[in-house]
Specification:
This is Polysaccharide lyase family 7 protein. InterPro entries: Alginate_lyase_2, ConA-like_dom_sf. Keywords: Lyase, Signal. By secondary structure, the chain is mainly beta. It contains four helices and 18 strands. The two termini are about 35 Å apart. The N terminus is likely disordered. The protein has a single domain, classed as Sandwich (Jelly Rolls). Strands 1, 2, 5, 9, 10, 11, 12, 13 and 17 form a nine-stranded antiparallel beta sheet that branches. A seven-stranded antiparallel beta sheet has the order 3-4-18-8-14-15-16, covered by helices on one side.
């Protein structure tokens, strides 16, 4: 089954194995292609949501949710042959999501995405302090599962939807890392590639955290490439190819969110770009609306969160063979909290 999924993905993605850099090969050598993701990666503090219907009676009609205990089952570690599996050649952990399918309650977009659960004994207590983290400024910071923490990843984006409205930001895009707050998101890391471009753009968004939800909006930050390109724009030559390895690290120290993105990691032409945001302060220039995330609770997410849907993004859903899905392969994923 795994071979058939990989074959379908190859229709619209780059063969990562044939294009491996020495550093990527080093990461791959640490992974066993015959093992489940949780046997190659430390996943004791993660659960995962998948773009299929759940088979548990208590979750009838909802998207599939696999708890940390199920994900790390010693005898039967969780694998889904189409949406979450180990690449049979590279050993990478593969996340894939179609343009249409079951979604989480507050989203129109499908996902194959991990959600950090710092207290895995409370499998469904998503709002419990012990399950989440806070920054040092939180009045009850000591009650949380962690104060700050670090998430680092090395990955390739192998596919993004081949259909969509290029004037819509969600079209041709996937979120491959997040920090989610109780309502809004101080961090979403995006990869977006238009079908007529060879390179895609890597960027991140900060969503202001206002008192009234109607006032919220995202502030985009370009990393490699440009976030709001349309088909008529020039190819972002400084961007990232499908199947090309890159890295990101998110490190919250005290109240400061530190971001580092690396293109050509481990190579002579390595390029790093860094950003910092103090989450205990309103985003600069947005003091009238942004209340900051200084008193909020948060959690990390990683995987493939498909931003292309048949509603707001104008995407079609003709199936994987037609390229209407997204896929990312992680060679490293480390959570330190």
């Amino acid at each position: 089954m795994k071979k058939s999924v990989i074959a379908l993905a190859a229709l619209v993605s780059v063969n990562a194995w044939s294009a491996m850099t020495p550093y990527q090969q080093q990461l791959s050598d640490k992974l066993d292609p015959s093992k489940a993701p949780s046997e190659n990666f430390e996943m004791e503090k993660w659960k995962i949501n998948l773009p299929i219907g759940d088979n548990k009676p208590e979750r009838a009609g909802k998207e599939m949710e696999i708890t940390a205990a199920e994900l790390n089952n010693v005898n039967y570690p969780y694998v889904h042959p189409q949406w979450f599996y180990t690449d049979a050649q590279t050993g990478a952990m593969v996340f894939a999501a179609p343009n249409t399918g079951p979604t989480t309650p507050n989203s129109k977009n499908t996902r194959s995405e991990l959600r950090a659960m710092l207290d895995t004994t409370q499998a469904y207590q998503y709002k419990a302090p012990a399950t989440n983290f806070a920054v040092a400024s939180h009045p009850q910071a000591s009650e949380f599962g962690a104060i700050g923490g670090r998430l680092s990843a090395a990955l390739t984006v192998d596919a993004v939807s081949q259909s969509g409205d290029d004037k819509k930001m969600g079209a041709f895009a996937s979120v491959i890392g997040q920090i989610h707050g109780s309502d809004n998101e101080p961090l979403k890391i995006y990869y977006r590639k238009l079908p007529n471009h060879t390179h895609g753009s890597l960027f991140w968004n900060y969503e202001i955290n206002p008192k009234d939800k109607k006032d919220r909006f995202d502030i985009s930050h370009d990393v490699f490439g440009i976030h709001d390109l349309q088909k008529s724009d020039a190819n972002p030559e400084d961007g990232i190819l499908l199947g090309e390895l890159f890295e990101y690290e998110v490190n919250i120290v005290g109240t400061v969110m530190k971001l580092e993105f690396t293109k050509n990691p481990g190579e002579a032409n390595e390029i790093k770009k860094n950003f910092e945001v103090d989450l205990a302060k309103a985003y600069p220039g947005q003091e009238k609306l942004d209340t900051s995330y200084g008193s909020d609770w948060m959690y990390y997410k990683a995987g493939a969160y498909n931003q292309c849907n048949q509603g707001s993004s104008g995407c079609e859903n003709k199936g994987i063979e037609a390229g209407d899905y997204t896929q990312a392969s992680f060679y490293k994923l480390e959570l330190a909290q």
